[in-house]
Amino acid sequence: MSYKDFIKYSGEYLLTSKESLEIDEITQNIFGVDSIVLMELAGKGVADFTDYLLKKDFESKILVVCGVGNNGGDGFVVAKHLFQKGYNISLFFIGDEKKLKKDSRTNFDIAKKFGVNFISESEFLSEISKFSVIIDGIFGVGLDRDINGVYKRVIDLINHQKKLSESRDKTKKLQNILNKNRVFFNNKTLTIISIDIPSGVHGTTGEIFGVAVKADYSITFGFYKIAHFFNSGLDYCGEVIPIDISFPKNAIDYLSTKPIKLVTERYIIDLIPESKRDSYKNKNGHLFIFGGGENTLGAPIISSKGAFSVGVGLVTLTFQTDFKEKTINFDFPEVMIKSFHNSFDFLIKNVNCFLFGPGVIGDEINSTDKDSVEKIKNFFIYLWNKNIPLVIDGGGLDYFIFLEKNLSKRDSPVIITPHLGEFSRLTGLSVSEIKKDAVNTVLEFAKKFNVVTVLKSSTTIIASPDGEIFLNPFGNEGLSTAGSGDFLAGVISGFLSQNISPLNSAILGTYFHGKGGELTSLKLSKKSMKATDIEIGIKELWLKIEQNY
Length: 549
Hints:
Elements: E1 13-15, H1 17-29, H2 35-54, E2 61-66, H3 70-85, E3 88-93, H4 102-114, E4 117-119, H5 121-127, E5 133-137, H6 149-178, E6 191-195, E7 217-221, E8 224-225, H7 233-236, E9 239-243, E10 260-262, H8 265-269, E11 286-291, H9 298-309, E12 314-319, E13 336-337, H10 344-347, E14 353-356, H11 370-384, E15 390-392, H12 396-403, E16 414-416, H13 420-427, H14 431-436, H15 438-449, E17 452-455, E18 460-463, E19 469-472, H16 484-496, H17 502-524, H18 534-548
């Protein structure tokens, strides 16, 4: 059995803390599933996953730490089931028994009657170094305050113990390399499993309430939480394993708010354009790219490669600077080049998608070279007024926000692709302010300016003007390299050029860019990747798709 077998219902939605609590109520009040049943299924699921990890190693000592809320109630069920399976279980309860809610109180009493070993705070302090697994059931998604007092001390100690065990493990591995026949430590590296979400992580934002458990695994129920993919949550949640606890799939339809959708491989398949044998280059779209400043001529070339990697038929490239006077190491003969000296009508002849901005320096709006800047402004307005889909990236975003008040309402779609710094300039908000409520900030911007907005980050947010919002979790730190954003802009534009809707182009583009980066890093390593290497992974991805579907 693989741990993947536990992911029986991946729930292609991400819920806020409020929505998570609301799903519980909907399941109970509309579908008639009793809350005690949900708690039992949640606890049993975590216990089964722990059993899988330990592979019946009954010598392992397991500690379950429980608070007074429903998360603690789940923990009591976990302890009961692991005890029944024969594991060496201890349970540390933090809080006042009188504050336990009905279901938690029931499972607290059951765990005691079954014979689970409850330990005191002093025993916790003296015994913590002996545990090989700690299961965190202190706080859940309902937490809305900073952690202090005994809760903070306990979480700090759990994290400290984790660091000590990792340090021991590194030393052990080094010593075993140097002395192959000797084993220096018998201690196992501490594994931390959080129930639903690590205690101390804000369920909606992924920010930390002063302190939080740093988990190896977070076993979540039915649906992912936004925090599993955002801000500090990315570092604290570890690997997130969603399990089925009988939430009805259509319970999501009863939510009072529109939940965020998660970009998954299963979702992507239906969006991919079908290849046809009678296809030819003009039928696969003609993309026009404008960009490339004085020292950034490579940016639009990288975008061109991104577009070709997803099947665009033709790419025409125009540099904002006069390429004839520059020495360009140009090894990409598939791209057609036109000089910016030509008329605007000539530049975009027979084009069905624009990409404006890769390599354009936004600061040039205030440049002393007024004639060149004025021509770029006029060209942007010209493209804006054409009934052709438009993608705006890089320095082009500064032209967009600078000219926004002078732009007419546009019927053709627009996609913008800012990173956090660029989005900060677009909104006037600081990066920290954006991070506190990134989802809603992006959504409101998309609605206000009637543009599909792709906010590039470790987890990319995609929002449409009609209120749909997606999160793309694919990618890794190998994509944090110069030109990666230019490549993404080209990929998105490549899909848009093929007559795919703007929202679906953004979803497909971020997926292919992220997944392509993941596959590339397996061949070249994350450290050695450069932007154009992403096409290596995308080629492999296309092969997988074509062979399996």
